Structures
1.
Amino acid sequence: MSPRDSLSRTRKGERTKENILTTALELFSKDGYEETTMRAIAESAGVSVGSAYYYFPSKEHLVQAYYMRLVKEHADAARELLEKEKTLRRRIAGVLQTKMDTLEPYHRFSPAIARQGIDPESPLNPFSNESYEARTEAIALWEEVVEGARERIHKDLRKELPEMLWLCSEGIVLYSVYDRTEGRERTRQLIDDSADLLSRLIKMAGLPLIGPVRKLVLRIMKNAAPWRVGPQL
Amino acid sequence: MSPRDSLSRTRKGERTKENILTTALELFSKDGYEETTMRAIAESAGVSVGSAYYYFPSKEHLVQAYYMRLVKEHADAARELLEKEKTLRRRIAGVLQTKMDTLEPYHRFSPAIARQGIDPESPLNPFSNESYEARTEAIALWEEVVEGARERIHKDLRKELPEMLWLCSEGIVLYSVYDRTEGRERTRQLIDDSADLLSRLIKMAGLPLIGPVRKLVLRIMKNAAPWRVGPQL
DNA sequence: GTCTATAGCCCGATAGAC
DNA sequence: GTCTATCGGGCTATAGAC
């Protein structure tokens, strides 16, 4: 078999895989996750059930593939925004708002994603070993948020801040799952208020009276962060 | 049919139901939730599959019944503790530690509970309409925590504080699902540190410079609390 | 009217032929 | 790499026992 043949085989496989994923996402957002059967996905995509399972070992893997796609999409959108905004408050709010933009088209089945993400054994869990790469990239993004901000930040805090902001962002994403308002309006309000609050707190962290509280917060972060404590958690 | 007959019938039904639930919980914690089949539960309990489904409309309902049992158990244990402790810090920590005690025996399948609890449609979701009663009772418990504490608390904050503490407690319970340390040691550490931090912040909320931040926090709480905003969220 | 048993549907997942 | 056939398990319909 010539290299060219094997290449076009691979290409064909990728197209088939892409086709199955796209079809699945359409059906998920049209009918919901539970309601969409693997048989329906396969039929709609014009392949057999066996083929669908050849590319995606389980129905959950379809959701995972979609999620990984989103992480990259969001990083691009967020970095574009960070070029323009320089205040901490606007940078925090902006990154979170672009996250909402990215998630919006598939809000219909976000509960299915959340259900998987909450399971400690699932690769979709934001704290899992399998998510290491996605998590690192996401935290790096928050590092840029902090680095590029014009505000002065207390140096002890500066080191931990990206992970703390990432954790907050995970919380807000979780909140948005429950948000049934048009265009995630309520979550967007929460984002603006939270960015206001967070930027104030970060600036306050340098004040002399705040020392003990700051130390305590950093201590909690250090002891409790599950994604750093290794296999036992 | 005499009333006595119908009473003993009902009794028998209750015993059967209890028997099925107990058997299910044993199997869940021995083999895990996913691994335990309804057929196995029915066989172990000495009833038919149909009978099991007569008492529990779905496998998830078994988990729900167990959860409701825990809520009551915890309220009793917590109130006993509140008799003894009078400082805010110890009251917060104590209520959370008793919560851990209550959850401990079934930690093995807590991920299965979390998966259901995270789903906006599930009655187990802490913010759902079906959870209204359990939620109200849980918030009432936190109200006792605040009321019975010897510390002075700023009056604007005092009104919102029980719900805020309840929300924090939900977060800590979620954290404990991921905690694989012996006896939830890491979560218990987090609880002690969090109680320290929270009691400090609550006391600080009265300081003059903190005014704008306090107002902002209360605003966020008011706008974002999903369990109060009615059917649209 | 309260409870139990059986047979079988549906769908996620797998085995194995080609 | 794709297919068909089949399995396992959650769940249901329904017929009856008491």
2.
Amino acid sequence: MFYFLFLWQTTNNMSVLNDELDYQILKLLQKDGRMSFTEISKEINVAVSTIRHRYINLIEDGTIKIIGRVDPNKIGFNAYASILISVKPKTYMNTIFEELTKLPEISFLALVSGSFDIEADVMCRDMEHLNVLLADKIHVLEGVFDTKTNMYMKIYKVAQPDLELARLSSMPKQ
Amino acid sequence: MFYFLFLWQTTNNMSVLNDELDYQILKLLQKDGRMSFTEISKEINVAVSTIRHRYINLIEDGTIKIIGRVDPNKIGFNAYASILISVKPKTYMNTIFEELTKLPEISFLALVSGSFDIEADVMCRDMEHLNVLLADKIHVLEGVFDTKTNMYMKIYKVAQPDLELARLSSMPKQ
DNA sequence: AATTTATTTACAAAAAACGTATTAAAAAAT
DNA sequence: ATTTTTTAATACGTTTTTTGTAAATAAATT
């Protein structure tokens, strides 16, 4: 009977630590995607092999992806804009999304609520480039009824989802 | 005389390959931030030490940053929204940016052209969370005159700046 | 042409990753 | 309640990679 209680306790602790461990790994990699498994394991006192296993799982289920984030300004993109698109008739939505996805200038593409249907954020070299993109690649698409373009004039913050906020909820894994 | 010509040729090739080399490194790291220097060097036929030097420079001047990009949905963020803010009087702009930058829910914050002044994209757990954020953290700020919130209902694309497009211009390093 | 500066490269020591095997724990079945 | 199955954590030796330093080469400056 006493033995049973003991087992229950370890089980409980482990299942809490499980998710907590993933959070800690994610948090460290979020800041520095090249941090070695060895360093991570030292930081949170778990065996290197465990970190590696967890890492592989997190990568495979798409929870995290390690990427090099390139600063657009440094490589010559000086016109960052938000293009809102109104589609009429709405039956064109799917084909428009398909076509827009292909455009290399588009860095973010989503279906939005509000008076427009689609938001497409684009990174262009300059106003000329943006202008040509709009005229030759977007306005020509069948179903594009109206657009509204606004420039991002100064960027104050670009951040990752805050894991501390996520931890408050019960971590529903997809 | 013949020797001199030979030298000139190598020089010329090298200087073209210089910027091209940075592009190639950036392109590979953009896709896989954990790719080893060894692997990169094999891919583009340059000594490992060269790749490493270039890498260190690219990191130090902020051209690229290796980060773990966490999928918001996988960790329980189900309300992704765009909040447009109108500021009156405009003298409050600076303090509002300062305050907004602190909010952990905000993943993107920028000064925008158009009928509103500020765009703040937020990642919240759910509608309740978003609602509380708006009411208790944003609407209460002095100078926030009006806001307009739209939900990102489905995300079709999240991409990095396209290096092929950048290569077309003359790579002005900042 | 000489000097300075920057870039590329080579190499050896240290550190890290990988593959595999082992151990331990949790869940499921009996 | 015990056994079996499945899943997760860990240890360890080998291979690979990174790191620090020094040398060679090229470019820019004088």
3.
Amino acid sequence: MNASSTPSTPGARASDTRARLIGTAQALLQTHGFAAFSYQHLADELGIRKASIHYHFASKDDLGVAVLAAFRASFDEWVRLHLGQDPHARMLAYLRIYTRFARDHGKACPVAMVSSDFFDLPETVREQARLLAQAHLLWLAATLEEGRQAGVFAFPGEARRQAEVIGCAAQGAVLSARMWGDQRMDDILRQLLAQLAPPPPARPVNIQIMD
Amino acid sequence: MNASSTPSTPGARASDTRARLIGTAQALLQTHGFAAFSYQHLADELGIRKASIHYHFASKDDLGVAVLAAFRASFDEWVRLHLGQDPHARMLAYLRIYTRFARDHGKACPVAMVSSDFFDLPETVREQARLLAQAHLLWLAATLEEGRQAGVFAFPGEARRQAEVIGCAAQGAVLSARMWGDQRMDDILRQLLAQLAPPPPARPVNIQIMD
DNA sequence: GTCTATATCCGGATAGAC
DNA sequence: GTCTATCCGGATATAGAC
């Protein structure tokens, strides 16, 4: 009955199962939320018994902390991989993360899912959620500011505020994709980018400034 | 032990309890989500036994349908009350709905909460959620388009697309207010409005067109 | 590391008295 | 309309064998 491609074996290393638990829990968190997935779901997915999970994560809260920390580590790695690109390309790549989420069985942003469960979460998990959200917002603000100075983005006020708008809209977009399909979300992200585009040069007066 | 201000009495009318159930369920949906609140929570709040709730709503799904229908009725009424106002004032009033949500114990948008639970909901509840979201989007699109033609809003492309951005951002904003407090959300809504503001007249050339 | 077995609690739902 | 009593399933978690 073990549906897993890598059934548990007596010689399995703890770190293997632990990593697979985190990966599966990440997917379940994005599709069903933290409260709505269970050790039973995880056990079924991995082909082990649910009691075995407690060896790796004594409580579900511990698992929640590890799952959110893993999301943060993934994002840090993603940031590292895109360090060289220009702001516009980076922002495109960032929004494509959410496009991929939505297309992958309607996964939502982990931060949005945790926010929904927020009042039923222990402080340890809440803290990790804040750290993850913070990492995204800081990156967004830096990218927006860099893009504005490079002339590829235009928006009013502080980059930090604009970063919050983009982040919230992206979260809302993947949520709405669950209702309406991922085409809806593509439209929203495109509109978000269109709003960031700088206006065309003041007027088509034929002045050319030579340098 | 009845904490309710209107304890159940033998002579209570069904419509009273039914209305109180819907109202309490609306609040619980916005704070904890549909899956996370229980008949027991409702019963405690109203000062009755949980079995009694089944008289009014045979199943929790039936309650969910009624709760979302009630949200839609409230919104329709809100729309009616604001018919006379100009687009800018209407949009301000609309965003203030979410500000009030966030300040009221961190309530989220019901659509966002239902979206999180979406894959675990029966089709009857999903349908109501779509109807509610649709009502908001249609109103937003109409208000945006009217405001653009009146010159108080500026945005690229179709109003319908911009409506989706505003709606998603508002949903994300109230969710993020649960993490960071409602001041954060005020900032986001302000930024949203600032982005909608039309640019200042082409340049301060001292041309006055007389009419 | 993973198992079986079990403890404990809470969820929605039903039957039938009042 | 609301009650008590009960059923059943599923949740997290623990104990102890292998």
